[in-house]
Amino acid sequence: MSDLPASIDYQAIVACVREGGQLALESWREDAKPDARIWEKSKGHMVCDADLAVDTFLQARLADILPDAGWLSEETADDAARLNCDYVWLVDPIDGTRDYIRGRAGWCVSVALVYKGSPIFAVMYAPATDQLWTAKPGQGAYCNDAPLTASSQSAYDGARIPLDPDAKIEKLVIVEKPNSIAMRMAMVACDRADMVISLRWGSEWDIAAAHLIAAEAGAAVTDGLGGGLRYNKAKPMDFGVLCCAADIHDEIVGRMRIHADRILKETPDAP
Fold first, then answer.
1. What is the CATH superfamily name and number for domain 10-147?
2. What is the reported pLDDT for 36?
């Protein structure tokens, strides 16, 4: 990473993400629908005016900070020009839109700056709970400026996992599940959960920032098969994500393999 420019204004990135979160918060109402138009952009995927407003705001402001960086966001049409960029912004303007539109606090703004396929700076901001997470490679992860140490759970049995309250699962302890997968991964980084498992195709912008935050806190972060994660791919999707205490990673991969193989057989390519 010695060729990274020293001129990146990391504090400006943090300020920009905070401001984007406050923009979303203006339309959010606790325990009520937001003051925003809501629609289904594809089957099972909700979006609202606030998603687009935050996306537009972040794209303009982040371009001012690093003009040559590419752009990959959930709410912007993909531009293949990003593939020729060393630096790329990976952005989910509101990760956890379902919680946002339900008036629940499990949503955040998620921004990662990726350099040649690896996240080099991550910011997540959950304005409804006033939590701000940041991370840089080799410099640790922080929540509201407090250093994070990820879960040290050493046994699968009794591990905490964020799931819906009516989920039926043996040997694990269910804890509250925010809709935002980035926030669920941050729970592992904050030692409020021991594992997060997804065995479905997901987009890079969902996990890039949380990946760096959890990894810098000491968690293991891989795809659903236990493989490494790279970003800014031509098809910016991965099969699943596993974020967990390092000591139980291999056991989880082994336990989940039969399920992962079945799902891959049913959905061999990213949708």
1. Fructose-1,6-Bisphosphatase, subunit A, domain 1 (3.30.540.10)
2. 64
